[in-house]
Design brief:
By secondary structure, this protein is mainly beta. The chain has helices at 2-20, 126-131, 296-305, 348-352, 443-446, 477-483, and strands spanning 22-31, 34-35, 40-43, 49-51, 57-63, 68-72, 79-82, 88-92, 103-105, 111-113, 121-125, 148-152, 160-164, 177-180, 183-185, 214-220, 237-242, 251-263, 329-330, 340-341, 356-369, 372-384, 391-404, 410-422, 488-495. A hairpin with a 2-residue loop joins strand 1 (22-31) and strand 2 (34-35). The longest helix has 19 residues, at 2-20. The N and C termini lie far apart (96 Å).
């Protein structure tokens, strides 16, 4: 028994010694002045390691006899750092010389090697923007540039809110400065449009530049990167370099690009198809409101469906506390003095939406000759939205020329004229489409409201130019899109 007890005590002592033979080490890794996220830190000769967090920080427990930390990250030189009884490290990793030199456009159009810069820069090639195309070119940066957040308007020709490394101001402008071929341009919504409920709807600035005319986009992050552009660039800079006639073969070249997309809502919300719209377990259209039922024919029809219910219409409410949709015969907004079965319309959600489409056509003529080059491009965008009668059209005319007048005098012109507009940019808040919509109401019929004006019943003192499923809270959205339109036209000239 004593021998077993001695063995147990010895084992516990040995285990405690192993636990105590650990050293806690922590620190922070940076590269090019920025925290290095996801770098590997390993105690050499062991499998003990960790990766750096969003702040570049790391911490791990290493054996007491560990003498070296190994730091590694893709694109950077692997480093071995002696521990020497040190428990906290602030280390900087260097870019690997094995990487190919990458040239980026910096402030004022100066081209430099990316690894030679002292601030964070990220470059996006034009081919990536055209492959996953959006009518607003800045949306193509989403998922391709780190630390950039893009919130786009879900309407044809809409603009986007862009922030780099989060908001810098609670009340002021957080948009980056756009620079197109050296010409600064404010963000889409730096100055709100008076009277506009949602400035994203109108687009502007970078959103009107055609992706087919862009050679590259460079995102400059941080105050140091934007120093040459002053206080307007406090939120970062997005540099846009457009295409010219250089780089191609000698002689005249003609390029044509066609891009077409279609879209439909991908996700359909889950709806209940048990109870109709109304209240008190009654669903009945009387006059578009909750009017009483006094007409002998209507009263007879009502009692056949609801023997004991209060004789009032229920279309003045928008909740769904009505009767079970079991096929009983009731009056609807479209049935006039007739009755029809009360049943759910499973595809009423999809009946509301249109099939959206975007068609882009661009033709470009360029020439590269001994003393210079030029490029002229015409682009047309025709976009139809998911909502009824919702569109956007844009024509882009770009002309770039580089000409050597003498050995010491060169001329460069970069210009673009943009004509854009819409017959209707209306973007109503569609509250009734989802939570307050009655499932026995078919949006496909509401689209044809003019066909039901002769049978549609309303109060004598109600004079509506449209038929609708109710007249207490909701407009007919298709009438709104037909008549209460929000159109605009815009002319913009950019160049230097």
């Amino acid at each position: 028994m004593k021998q077993k007890l001695y063995t147990l005590i010895f084992s516990l002592t040995l285990f405690g010694s192993v636990l105590s033979a650990q050293t806690a080490i922590s620190g922070k890794l940076i590269a090019e002045g920025e925290p290095l996220i996801g770098a590997t830190v390993v105690a050499k000769g062991t499998s003990i390691g960790t990766i750096t967090d969003f702040d570049g920080g790391f911490s791990l427990q290493v054996p007491a006899d560990a003498s070296t930390l190994v730091l590694s990250y893709t694109g950077y030189e692997t480093q071995e750092v002696p521990i020497n009884n040190q428990t906290y490290f602030e280390l900087e990793m260097s870019v690997s010389d094995i990487m190919l030199d990458e040239i980026v456009v910096t402030s004022l159009g100066i081209k430099r090697e990316k690894k030679a810069l002292g601030y964070a820069v990220q470059d996006v090639d034009a081919s990536e923007l055209v492959e996953s195309r959006s009518s607003n070119v800045v949306n193509g940066l989403s998922g391709r540039v780190a630390n950039i957040q893009i919130s786009s308007a879900a309407v044809p020709g809409g603009g986007s809110q862009v922030t780099i490394r989060g908001n810098g101001s609670l009340l002021g402008n957080n948009q980056p400065l756009y620079v197109i071929d050296g010409v600064p341009m404010e963000g889409d919504f730096a100055q709100p449009i008076d009277g506009a409920g949602d400035n994203n709807v109108y687009g502007g600035g970078i959103s009107e530049i055609s992706p087919d005319n862009i050679a590259s986009i460079t995102v400059l992050k941080g105050a140091n990167a934007a120093a040459l552009y002053g206080s307007r660039a406090a939120n970062g800079v997005i540099l846009v370099t457009t295409k010219d006639g250089s780089g191609g073969k000698k002689g005249l070249t003609v390029d044509y690009n066609l891009n077409a997309t279609v879209e439909r809502p991908f996700v359909t919300p889950e709806f209940q198809d048990t109870y109709g719209g109304g209240n008190g377990y009654v669903s009945w259209y009387a006059d578009g409101r909750n009017g009483g039922i006094t007409d002998p024919l209507a009263l007879e029809q009502f009692r056949a469906a609801y023997p004991n219910a209060t004789t009032n219409g229920t279309s003045g409410v928008d909740e769904s506390w009505g009767a079970p949709m079991d096929g009983r015969l009731v009056r609807h907004w479209w049935s006039g003095e007739e009755v029809a079965p009360l049943v759910p319309v499973p595809d009423t959600w999809s009946n509301f939406w249109e099939t959206g489409s975007t068609i882009n056509n661009t033709i470009a003529i360029s020439s590269n000759y001994e003393t210079g080059n030029f490029r002229f491009a015409f682009g047309n965008t025709d976009q139809q939205g998911l909502m009824y009668n919702n569109d956007f059209k844009r024509n882009n005319f770009r002309f770039n020329i580089n000409q050597d007048l003498t050995d010491k005098l060169k001329v460069k012109v970069s210009s673009e004229y943009i004509k854009s507009g819409s017959n209707n940019r209306q973007q109503p808040v569609l509250w009734e489409i989802q939570s307050w919509h009655n499932r026995h109401v078919d949006w496909g019929l509401l689209k044809d409201y003019e066909d039901y004006m002769d049978v549609h019943i309303t109060r004598a003192d109600d004079s509506y130019p449209y038929a609708n499923w109710q007249h207490s809270f909701a407009l007919n959205r298709f009438y709104e899109q037909d008549v209460l339109t929000d159109s605009n036209e815009k002319d913009r000239l950019v160049g230097n």
